[in-house]
Specification:
Helix content is 62%, strand content 0%. With 316 residues, it is an all-alpha fold. Helix 9 packs parallel to helix 11 and helix 10 runs antiparallel to helix 11.
Length: 316
């Protein structure tokens, strides 16, 4: 059993949220800074040590790819070590992020991911890169095929399931808040398929937030999530209670993306009108806030998170 959450109510003052994609991976933060200065040897060591922990590998590669000049420095690494699959995959991830920002060619990014997949057939990360592209730029069929390729290599892939939930939630906003929408079926199926200790248990909450985002942007829900009935229905209450109860029993605090789930769950609890439960989650989150879902549907995540912390913990 993990230690109980900190006492509810007023807490010691926390630093402002960082909204750092590295979350609480301090080693990753250090290595990313070194990579931005052209020192790629620590990135090589970090990825070698990560091994086939696929969720952590994908998380670290996507964050490293955000470093200034990541593609160029990874290119230097590849020149020095032409057989390095890690260098090839880092180049691919950097190309994907560049294409999503409109600063690189989508075609070149796809080619880079394919090269990385050929170099490391068992690694889901090159397919995650392609899925990141398809999430924003691809067809429905392509998204589904790429998701299947990731799951083939790692059935519980955390990031891939979040991407799929976000894409599915955007289908048919015109039908409104349908409790039978396919994103809910997908999330429930994924949670049921996953082992009992998998953080995919929180995916139904993620799906609920993503559907709210899609509906609010389409004018089907209020732009203020606290004013939306989306969070107060019977199904929503059941989903959020099940996820919160699961979190209280969760023994695996080392998952690299766990703070993403905690942010979704804290956001949901506040929207549901349960600040005491949100307080326990916000204490555990500490400074590791994530832009999603606090930015949903179109809000300043810093202001939204500070307001949430003030409402639940009584601190600014």
């Amino acid at each position: 059993m993990p230690p109980p959450p900190p006492p509810l109510g007023r807490s010691r003052r926390r630093s402002d949220p960082t909204f750092d994609a590295a979350l609480d991976d301090a080693e990753l933060v250090t290595v990313r800074g070194q990579l931005s200065q052209g020192r790629w040897t620590r990135a090589r060591s970090l990825l070698a040590a990560t091994g086939d922990d696929w969720d952590r590998r994908g998380h670290r590669l996507v964050v490293l790819a955000q470093a200034n000049g990541a593609a160029a420095w990874a290119g230097d690494w590849l020149l020095a070590e032409p057989e390095s699959a890690d260098a090839v995959t880092l180049i691919a991830c950097a190309a994907v992020l560049g294409a999503l920002r409109g600063k690189d060619s989508e075609g070149r990014a796809r080619e880079a991911c394919r090269r990385a997949a050929d170099r490391s057939p068992a690694d889901p990360t090159p397919w995650l890169g392609l899925l990141l592209l398809a999430r924003s730029l691809g067809t429905e069929e392509e998204v589904g095929q790429l998701f299947d390729q990731v799951r083939l290599r790692h059935p519980e892939h955390h990031h891939a399931h979040h991407l799929m939930a976000a894409r599915l939630a955007e289908r048919r906003p015109d039908i409104g808040n349908d409790p039978l929408h396919e994103v809910y079926d997908f999330a429930a199926w994924a949670a049921e398929q996953a082992p009992a200790d998998s953080p995919l248990a929180v995916l139904p909450v993620v799906a609920h937030a993503e559907r709210y985002r899609a509906l609010a942007l389409a004018g089907q829900e209020p732009m203020d999530p606290a004013a939306s009935a989306h969070w107060s229905g019977r199904r929503a209450r059941q989903v959020m209670k099940a996820a919160f109860d699961w979190w209280l029993e969760w023994e695996h605090e080392g998952h690299p993306r766990r703070h993403i789930d905690l942010n979704y769950l804290a956001h949901a609890k506040l929207c549901e009108g349960r600040p005491a439960e949100a307080a326990a989650l916000l204490n555990r989150i500490g400074p590791h806030a994530t832009e999603a879902p606090w930015s949903y549907p179109d809000r300043d995540p810093h202001k939204a998170f500070r307001a949430a912390r003030s409402a639940a913990l009584g601190i600014a």
